[in-house]
Design brief:
By secondary structure, the chain is mainly alpha-helical. It folds into 2 domains: 76 residues, 2-Layer Sandwich (ATP12-like), CATH 3.30.2180.10; 152 residues, Orthogonal Bundle (ATP12-like fold), CATH 1.10.3580. 56% of the residues lie in helices and 9% in strands. The radius of gyration is 19 Å and the shape is globular.
């Protein structure tokens, strides 16, 4: 969900409950999504973490510095009313997963094979989704059974997890990496590094662009937020 900067008009941030569910309060009123739904949390731990994001804002609320809040709002306003479409959108990444396309440069291709193949092996073993690999950018057609298995793995997530999975998938360009992060096979740092093998290779040879570095840092922070949200949301 994309939101611009908002002037801070509240003074106090707290955590309360509505109908037995934890909520974040701003000056005593429950936090609402842009679509005006009360934002309910699965547990107090996640509510406290989101409350901290709102408390840390000073004169201006900057959504890009509030990744947990963005994921939660996306789950409420986008995933819940359009779940089937979100599942399809995420699952489609399996058709052209980043890990299935190897460079034609020998050195980079070898690095990709070493780093990526264990994750593809995991997808085969843990998800029953073997995926074919190709060199270059020529599309490779994946088996229908594998794509169906990946879709089942995506659909098994609840709305909040699905919002996090969507962010992880779009950030890394890989459904396999996103599912591995969701299932604890990878941590956020490893998922990020694996998704950036090509960029890292380029930077090692020609240096990194400052603007690209800044953009990459925001994306890395998003992955850390995905990891933290999944951990918090699954607490009792």
């Amino acid at each position: 969900m994309t939101l611009g900067p908002l002037k801070r008009v509240y003074k106090e941030v707290g955590v309360d409950s509505v109908d037995g569910a934890p909520v974040v309060t701003l000056d005593g009123r429950p936090l609402r999504s842009p679509a005006k739904s009360i934002v309910r949390f699965p547990n107090e731990s996640l509510a406290l973490a989101v409350a901290k994001e709102w408390r840390d804002g000073r004169d201006e609320v900057k959504p890009w510095r509030m990744p947990l809040t963005r994921i939660v709002l996306s789950a409420i306003d986008q995933v819940a009313p359009g779940r089937d479409g979100i599942v399809s959108r995420i699952s489609a990444y399996g058709e052209t997963d980043l890990l299935c396309y190897r460079s034609e440069r020998a050195g980079l291709s070898a690095r990709q094979a070493k780093k990526w193949q264990p994750l593809l092996d995991w997808a085969d073993e843990a998800l029953s989704a073997p995926l074919a690999v190709a060199a270059g950018i020529v599309p490779v057609e994946q088996a229908r059974g594998s794509l169906a298995a990946l879709r089942d793995a995506v659909a098994a997530h609840d709305d909040l997890e699905l919002a996090a999975l969507h962010l992880a998938t779009t950030t890394t360009g890989s459904l396999v990496l996103a599912l591995a992060l969701s299932r604890g096979r990878l941590d956020a740092r490893s998922a990020w590094e694996l998704s950036r093998l090509d960029e890292t290779w380029q930077a090692e040879r020609w240096g990194a662009d400052a603007e690209a570095v800044e953009r990459a840092e925001r994306q890395r922070a998003d992955l850390r937020a995905v990891e933290r949200l999944l951990e918090l949301s699954r607490l009792p």
